[in-house]
Write a structure and sequence with these properties.
Elements lengths: L4 H23 L4 H12 L13 H21 L2 H10 L5 H21 L6 H10 L1 H33 L4 H11 L4 H13 L4 H11 L3 H16 L3 H25 L1 H24 L1 H9 L1 H25 L4
Helix pairs in contact: 3-5, 4-7, 5-6, 7-8, 7-12, 8-9, 9-10, 10-11, 11-12, 13-14, 13-15, 14-15
């Protein structure tokens, strides 16, 4: 009796995932002695030696309920880039909750594929397609926040320059931006204002914002402030020039977007057309399409097609992405 290679692939995927999770649970830091001491206290075999060692059954139950959430939180802590992504997107969802939502979306996609009686090889595809939807939402939220921050930057430069000309300090100019402008630039500049109030050098506080908002125009502003603090100069004039350059760059970017619109639409059509044709042919004649998954040559053709699709998307993106 021969098994379907697709079934073997799915079983191998779940098996490897289970092994990874088991290895993590075995080798993660776990204080087993403290757990044994608490069990001895509850059983009466050991007395409480200090107030800090007192344990109640309610506390253990609460720890058991929060255990899975804590495990997800520790897993999320391993990925610093993922945590930074949540900070940059100003996400209202915690990383462990986000992971649960992603798993739920993946299971929902597999369930939909089962209910729709899709071919077995499409189950992992459906799970992956729906499982990455929360990540796509997070990336979209971060991109929208970056874009809004960039559009607010020229006005912020002008406000700070006017505050400097009227005799205020740089910190007061930052406070004007916080009070007069909306999120996200008010939130980020408020972090700078609070950090410098706590004694952090303003150059370092501005650099911390760049880690959360990697905008090149903002980097010019932070560099100008650092140079002015060391060697002096007319910071207000520099900020006016930076604001003017940003506005001119926006004009050029608008022209580039208009000129490359045809290429972007062509890329979307070329990427979506093979997938749409696949589902159309599968709806009309499923047996004809299933040869791509049941036959060895068909599986190779699918793999080559996927690689060529990715290469085509990268090539089109390189053509239409013009740096200014």
């Amino acid at each position: 009796m021969t098994l379907d290679p697709t079934v073997i692939s799915i079983a191998a995927f779940f098996g490897v995932t289970g092994l990874i999770m088991t290895a993590y649970l075995l080798f993660r830091e776990f204080d087993s002695s403290s757990v044994e001491d608490r069990l001895d206290i509850l059983a009466g075999r050991k007395s409480r030696t200090s107030e800090s060692e007192q344990v109640t059954k309610e506390a253990l139950v609460r720890e058991g309920v929060d255990g899975f959430s804590g495990l997800l939180s520790r897993i999320a802590d391993r990925f610093e880039a993922l945590k930074l992504l949540f900070v940059q997107a100003d996400s209202p969802i915690r990383p462990e909750t986000f992971l649960l939502i992603s798993i739920g979306c993946a299971l929902a996609g597999v369930t939909i594929a089962i209910v729709a009686r899709s071919p077995l090889p499409l189950y992992p595809v459906a799970g992956l397609a729906t499982g990455i939807m929360p990540l796509i939402w997070l990336l979209w939220r971060r991109k929208r926040r970056f874009k809004k921050f960039a559009s607010q930057l020229p006005d912020a430069m002008e406000l700070i320059a006017r505050a400097l000309r009227s005799g205020h300090s740089l910190a007061s100019g930052l406070k004007v931006v916080v009070d007069e402008m909306p999120d996200p630039i008010s939130t980020e500049f408020n972090a700078v204002y609070e950090e410098q109030n706590l004694g952090i050098p303003i150059e370092q506080a501005l650099k911390n914002v760049f880690n959360r908002m990697p905008n090149m125009d903002y980097k010019f502003f932070a560099t100008a402030v650092a140079i002015q603090r060391q060697s002096g100069g007319d910071l207000a004039e520099i900020l006016d020039k930076i604001g003017h350059i940003i506005r001119e760059r926006f004009k050029i970017m608008g022209q580039v977007q208009a000129l490359t619109g045809e290429g972007r639409i062509s890329g979307i059509v070329l990427m979506a057309l093979p997938i749409a044709l696949f589902f159309a042919v599968w709806h009309m004649n499923p047996d004809y399409v299933m040869l791509l998954f049941t036959d060895e040559l068909g599986r190779k053709m699918v793999a080559v097609a996927a690689v060529l699709q990715i290469l085509g998307a990268v090539a089109i993106k390189k053509i239409i992405a013009i740096k200014i």
